[in-house]
Amino acid sequence: MAVRPLSFFSSGLRLDADLHVPDGGANAPYPVVIPCSGYQGLKVIHPERFARALVERGYAVLAFDYRGFGLSEGERGRLVPQEWVEDVRAAVDRVVGEDDLDSTRIGLVGWGLGGGVVVAEAADDDRVSAVATCNGIGDGARSTRAMHDEATWRDLLARIEADRVRRSRAGRSEITVPWDIVRLDRDTRTDGYVDTELYRAPGFGSGVTLESADTLLRFSPERVAHRIAPRPLLVVHGRENLLHRPQEAESVYRHAHEPKRLIMLEGKGHTEWMFDDDPTFKELVDHLNHFLTTAPALTSAEVAANA
Known about the structure:
The protein is an alpha/beta fold. 37% of the residues lie in helices and 19% in strands.
């Protein structure tokens, strides 16, 4: 596998990115996969994990940090999924301009919150050939509410309301602990994985603004999922996911039009199995490879016939 820097600009901000390609270049132009991180995600975590798995299967993979994260420019602590949608669109813009990449075969893979982001981006970007979401969200308010008990939910809403006044007066949002918004402590398997694995990444776990929570609660990608058709959608979700509940996947699938496929990973949670050599991760990669290999090969007539 060869890796080269391929930074790009989104809303005038330079985003840090690397393009992972198969060695040799004999089969260029390559189909492209853009894996998109979830909440607090960085390119060095799951995007590079997908790159290691997919490049050996013949894909080029663009891994990048969203604005404000990693080495990308942007306000630290600002985690706005609606802006992340624009970052993914800018990533598509960037790969379209590379000679060794096939701009007619671009797939998006979203993890967690990034699963909702890729649905929203692809809904209005017909350059994307296929979309896959894994352990993603369909509605930010519903998925966040499900993480909280009654007391912490009321407290979060009150803090968001107070922060709106603060922002209107002072122009700045309060920084809070990210886990005040996403309650890891209610999902012990994910909480343990985060503590032992994800905190190894520099910058992981940094504070986020309450404005970020405000925008998350207004983010509902499932409402536009139907616009992905006639391009195909793959939805994969852990049946025992206690962070983003299975109803998130089921709702995205229900809102989407054909062609679509829903796969539930039995007995699996949100992220405890995300290791390169874990059998469940390998199973996920097999599902992605089959989906990405067959989906872009559909002709317009074949898609229309099956829609």
